[in-house]
Amino acid sequence: MEWLEKVFGNGFSVTFAESLEARELLLRLGCDAESLEMIDQEDAEERQLDDGVTMIRAGVHGGWAYAVQAWGTRVFEDGVLDVVSAGTRAVALVSTETIPYFTYRENTEEVCGFDPGMPWIRHGSDPDRFNALMSEVGLDPSGEAAGSGAVAGMLVLAERAFGLGLPYADVVEEELLGGVVPE
């Protein structure tokens, strides 16, 4: 997933939810059911810029639904992660100019969350769950800043901890189910 930083150079958020379909994940993220359509990345970004809407695209890979949003952080709006993770496991990975963040939830409860640039400050019911893996991927849980590799480390951590992946061709070159969050 390290390609996300290059493709979405101005920021991204990716949300994963286990055992959901793409449509269900988009609805849980607050997309209007009537807005759902197949759309490619370029058209989704144009629509987001031209129409000023929040556009999210989703697919399924390896038993997890995933939702990709360029630039925005809809997943971090009030209560959205609770809805997304209700009855399942969810992982949200965000990298914007102001917010890099990793969070893992089980049935609405944050198990572990942290800013990958400051991985020693962790939150949740089991904040140390990924400490060994964090060290392996360059995110020192004891107090060393991760520097420029923080986001890459967060992405690799998600891949290794949960077997998550995003098919580059599907996200970048193909159409995915997309939806608009009403204002």
Report on the structure:
- With about 180 residues, this protein is of the alpha+beta class.
- It is built from seven helices and nine strands.
- Strands 2-9-3-4-1-5-6-7-8 form a nine-stranded antiparallel sheet, with helices on both faces.
- A hairpin with a 7-residue loop joins strand 7 (about 110-115) and strand 8 (about 120-125).
- The longest helix has 13 residues, at about 150-160.
- It is globular, with a radius of gyration of 15 Å.
- The two termini are about 30 Å apart.
- The mean pLDDT is about 95.
User: Please, what is the average pLDDT?
Assistant: 95
Question: What is the strand arrangement across the widest sheet?
Answer: 2-9-3-4-1-5-6-7-8
Total beta strand runs:
9
Structural class assignment: alpha+beta
Let me know the largest β-sheet: 9 strands, antiparallel
Helix share, percent: 25-40%
- Along the chain, the helix and strand elements come as HEHEHEEHEEEEHHHE
Condensed summary:
The chain has 183 residues and is of the alpha+beta class.
Keywords:
183 residues, 9 strands, alpha+beta
Topology:
Layout: H1 4-7, E1 12-18, H2 22-28, E2 37-39, H3 41-51, E3 54-61, E4 64-70, H4 80-85, E5 89-95, E6 100-106, E7 109-114, E8 122-123, H5 131-136, H6 150-162, H7 168-173, E9 176-181
Antiparallel strand pairs: 1-4, 1-5, 2-9, 3-4, 3-9, 5-6, 6-7, 7-8
